[in-house]
Amino acid sequence: MPVVVVESPAKAKTINKYLGDDYTVLASFGHVRDLPPKDGSVDTDADFAMKWEVAAESKKHVKAIKDALASDPNLILATDPDREGEAISWHLREALASSLKKAQVSRVTFNAITRNAVTEAMANPRDIDQPLVDAYLARRALDYLVGFNLSPVLWRKLPGAKSAGRVQSVALRIIVDREMEIEAFRAREYWTVHATLATPKGDEYRAQLVTYAGRKLERYDLANEEAARLAVKAVESRDLKVTSVTSKPASRNPWPPFMTSTLQQEASRKLGLGARACMSAAQRLYEAGYITYMRTDGIDMAPEAVMAARDAIKARFGEAYVPKSPRVYKNKAKNAQEAHECIRPTDMMLSPDKLNVEPEQRKLYDLIWKRTLASQMEAARMERTTVEIGSADGQVGLRATGQVMLFDGFLKVYDQGTDDDEGEDSARLPQIAQGEPAAKRAVVPEQHFTQPPPRYTEATLVKRMEELGIGRPSTYASIVTTIQDREYVRKDKNRLIPEDKGRLVTAFLVKYFPRYVSYDFTAEMEGELDDISSGEREYREVLRRFWRDFTAALEGTSELRITEVLEAIDEALAPHLYPARADGGDPRECPLCGKGRLNLKTARSGGAFIGCNNYPECRYTRPISGAEGEAVGDTVLGLDPEGIEISLKTGRFGPYVQRGEATAEQPKPPRASIPKGWDAASMDLEKALMLLNLPREIGPHPEDGVMIEAGIGRYGPYVKHGSRYANLPEVDEVFTIGMNRAVEVLAAKPQRGRAAPAAALAELGEHPEGGAVQVLSGRYGPYVKWGKVNATLPRDVTPESLTMEQALELISAKASKGGKKPAAKKAAKEPAKAAAKKPAARKTAKAAEKAPARTATRKAAAGKATEG
Predict the structure, then answer these.
(1) Residue 122 reports pLDDT greater than 80
(2) Residue 426 has what pLDDT?
(3) Are strands 608-612 and 598-602 parallel, antiparallel or unpaired?
(4) Model pTM?
(5) Nearest Cα to Cα of residue 361 among 412, 287, 255
């Protein structure tokens, strides 16, 4: 049987249904080879020769394919229809070379996993597309060269930085640049005047002042409340009437069907799904045969799919919703090299409620299904009405706008979401006639302030990258995820906010490697990769030119000292690090000593902070993201009852309180971090002593007399009884919780793991030799338990029907077979034996720890050398 190889078991299972027993369908589980995470994997001295190795976890999958080829040498590579899929097929062919000497290797692609698509693909095999593979090789080499050469520069010159990537660093810069825009933004005040008017019939409507003092009102003409009040009086003192009513027909056409970037944007807006979660759900829908391939630049739809969509629209909504001719969408992406068709359902008649999938997948399918149908539906038709109202002397004029939906068209199914309010006025108006009086019910001024540009969401970041020509469908999710995983960016209420280390990395790269975080350069490089995939460029020539210029930039940083780097970054980030003070004073003046100046500094353990250059006389420090006064230097709060100083300090992990100072006898004096939610600036002696005296004893537990304590640990506030912990909802409760509440919290926490007693299905009584005989539920089904003897129940015996006699027989058989005895009192020697074995166990554990640590180090380096 010919061997068909795809990427995943789910895809293999679906395809196997269509191909039947005439083929052997196996999964490669993604890429089987990659560049080893070490120097020299891309040999720049050997014209960028790449040294690949089969991943350890992939060796068994490669062996399974080789074993299958032993009985039939025909290999059919059916990986995804994009660059990445072509690369996986190429890697498989190379890795299986020794087993393919007499084999026939063919490549097939299908945009949807349906019977027709798979059958047609199998009937039209082709060779591997080498230009697509070359584009992959160029991208992989570029990402490796940037990661393995730029990241070490960051580690050496910028303590605390993790890594840099060819495209991820540009995406990070987009977010940082937006944050700098927001911080530099200065709000401007302006006012508007609105009137609630009424028709002669008493129907009310709302209008805005647009003409004042006989001229058109511009946005900032009413600059303050006084000007707005004068405008209100001008309106109130005049009679108004309707001067014109204009109604114009309007229409809205549907949006095109989804491609990768627009799917990620809508999934973020409407479903709250991040790019990674969106693509994971889409991947499963694709592999199950429900949608077409989900990594695509295209918005074209196959003719048969268009007709199927039109049939589905007619059947569900009627002929009025089907346009006279099919809608055709043209792809705007330059030289799109991914799968060319849009993302759409494979069966237009399959509604989301009929899908037997996980909820997240169903929601995403619902989005895709509705967008696809809407893209082939009739336009929405509406009537937009503008009403002009004015005074007889022409000094004031107001305008009311609204619209009436005449035919909902595609909006019956789908309306695209927005990330930010677009201010569209869709209010409905009552019947208004020209020349009728407009009675004033209320005239009110409204204050406004201009707003800064909004922070990016994952959706708007992907949209911006697409606009700039940065990245491609297969890379968006990994780029957005990587900058969050490396803690350069955090997500708060769906908005992406740069962390301090992300700002530092961006400032460093913009200062010393401006070309390689340039939007234009990155977009040009993507264009060159597209040219390689279309056969217009030779990939090694692209690599040669890039490497020549890149090595020159690297050499330019070789002599840099950390102090020089910090000074340059300090200057670049000055508006962020030292915001203008309310009193107009020097923002760099130390607020503690008043003599020193603030500068960016690095901690011994890595990371950065703001400190006074008058150190050690002045020990003022604060995090680089903190505002002036948010954190202070060494401040003495007072003395404890024993006369020891209690001080407030700021360290690498933020503010903390400390009892006494470090001495030779006590190198580590007692400390306690300021809990989240507490303001360090308002810290006093009483609060400091409360923190330093934790854990707090509440009292002995009423059942066993063991002391219950309350404290704050790495996972937040807690109560503790022996070895049992239970979380508290609020930090303040640590200092007020009483015995009744503590016992209640401890009892409410469910037991897990070995500490949790298994619930007995049946209590059979006492064993003749002593000890309870129970029937419990286990991982492999019900079993009888007596001491340490566990005997599984036969399949034809239920826990309810089991008798003591049957249980004793099962226990006896199990005990004689396994040599186990019931738990008995241990001799005094046994603990000593156990203790004698502990050092060896610890030694083994240490050895086990080292190997994963080395592996983790290698994997971390590998991550730094890749884009995603």
Answers:
(1) yes
(2) 59
(3) antiparallel
(4) 0.69
(5) 287
The tokens of 50 are what? 């790449």
| DSSP bridge partners of 679 | none
Catalytic residue among 190, 205, 212, 293: 293
pLDDT at 638: 77
Residue 23 is among the residues annotated as catalytic for this protein: no
Q: Which of 560-569, 736-745, 815-824, 859-868 has the lowest mean pLDDT?
A: 859-868
**Residue 413 in 3-state DSSP?**
coil
Model pLDDT, residue 634? 61
Q: Take residue 552 and report the two structure tokens written for it.
A: 């020159």
Q: Where are the domains of the chain?
A: 3-128, 138-185+454-564, 189-253+381-449, 260-378, 586-692, 698-748
Q: What is the pLDDT of residues 682-699, one digit of tens each?
A: 788 888 999 999 999 999
pLDDT above 60 for 624: yes
Distances, alpha carbon 153 to alpha carbons 24, 36, 40, 556, 557, in Å:
49, 20, 17, 11, 8
Q: Are 194 and 207 in contact (CB under 8 A)?
A: yes
Name the fold adopted by 3-128: Rossmann fold (3.40.50)
Q: Which CATH superfamily is domain 138-185+454-564 in?
A: Topoisomerase I, domain 2 (1.10.460.10)
Give the DSSP letter string of 295-343: -EEEEE--HHHHHHHHHHHHHHH-GGGS-SS-------STT--SEEE-B
Domain 260-378, what fold? Topoisomerase I; domain 4 (1.10.290)
CA distance 81 to 84: 8
Q: Do domains 3-128 and 260-378 have the same CATH topology?
A: no
Comparing C-alpha atoms, which of 281, 301, 254 is closest to residue 112?
Answer: 301
Q: What is the pLDDT of residues 211-245, one digit of tens each?
A: 999 999 999 999 999 999 999 999 999 999 999 99
Q: Nearest Cα to 157, choosing from 627, 684, 554?
A: 554
> Residue 645 is which amino acid?
E
| Higher local confidence (pLDDT), 816 or 865 | 816
**Whole-angstrom Cα distance, residue 610 to residue 607?**
11
Residues 6+ apart with CB under 8 A from 573: 503, 504, 507, 600, 624
Q: CATH fold of 189-253+381-449, please?
A: Topoisomerase I; domain 3 (2.70.20)
- Type of residue at 296: T
Virtual CA dihedral for 608, 614, 617, 619, nearest 10 degrees? -30
